């Protein structure tokens, strides 16, 4: 049995026409999924605030924002669309308005990420500078086992300007650590007398500084 074809030559296949009509009246759902996916990607590579990354609280907040935009667009934007075109069905107007609101929200997130990018780069440079000064200190003062494994540094942020950088010593309960901080914009590091690794310090609730 042959599949049904369009009556006129050059028309799209029947399945494509059906899909187009279905999407036209239900685009908000697709826009919601696409908006959450695009927003999650932006939070990782181009966050509008804070450090890059996608945690569960951030992801939950993102879903809430996208859902709020969809509801707001459906409630308010649909009225605007129907005023401009009274013949537009209310259901279609809500769907289009919600889709448009989600698109505008994602665009705003992207613009915010672009504007915040210099701050993200500067913060990463601060972080890298403090880690580098801790590595240089380890090269001079750490035992040989640790200096052979400088690329295995475990970093814990104690505050915005203070890091605890640890290197393995061959035992799970011991590490050679340095406290790196920025004093007057210049990164400095000192040896930490506490030999507990960062994981153990975190479990016991002691910063070891």
How does this structure look, described?
Helix content is 59%, strand content 14%. The chain is α+β, with helices and mostly antiparallel strands. The chain is elongated, with a radius of gyration of 27 Å. The mean pLDDT is 87.
Low-confidence region ranges: none
Rough outline: elongated
Strand content: 5-15%
Which secondary-structure class do the elements indicate?
alpha+beta
Number of distinct helices:
6
Strand order in space, largest sheet: 1-2-3-4
Report the average pLDDT across residues: 87
> Which radius of gyration do the C-alpha atoms yield?
27 Å
What is the string of helix and strand elements? HHHHHEEEEH
Helix content: 55-70%
Query: Termini distance?
Result: 78 Å
Number of strands: 4
Largest sheet: 4 strands, antiparallel
What's the domain count? 2
């Amino acid at each position: 049995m042959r599949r049904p074809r369009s009556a006129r030559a050059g028309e799209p296949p029947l399945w494509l026409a059906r899909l187009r009509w279905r999407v036209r009246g239900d685009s908000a759902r697709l826009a919601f999924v696409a908006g959450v996916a695009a927003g999650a990607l932006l939070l990782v590579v181009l966050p509008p605030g804070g450090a890059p990354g996608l945690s569960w609280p951030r992801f939950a907040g993102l879903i809430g924002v996208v859902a709020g935009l969809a509801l707001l667009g459906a409630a308010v934007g649909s009225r605007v669309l129907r005023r401009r075109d009274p013949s537009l069905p209310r259901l279609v107007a809500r769907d289009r308005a919600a889709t448009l609101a989600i698109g505008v929200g994602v665009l705003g997130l992207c613009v915010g990420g672009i504007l915040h990018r210099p701050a993200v780069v500067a913060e990463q440079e601060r972080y890298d500078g403090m880690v580098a000064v801790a590595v240089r200190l380890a090269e001079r003062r750490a035992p040989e086992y640790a200096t052979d494994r400088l690329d295995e540094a475990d970093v814990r942020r104690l505050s915005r300007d203070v890091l605890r950088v640890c290197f393995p010593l061959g035992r799970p309960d011991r590490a050679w650590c340095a406290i790196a901080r920025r004093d007057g914009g210049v990164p400095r590091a000192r040896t930490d007398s506490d030999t507990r690794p960062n994981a153990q310090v975190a479990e016991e609730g002691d910063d070891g500084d």
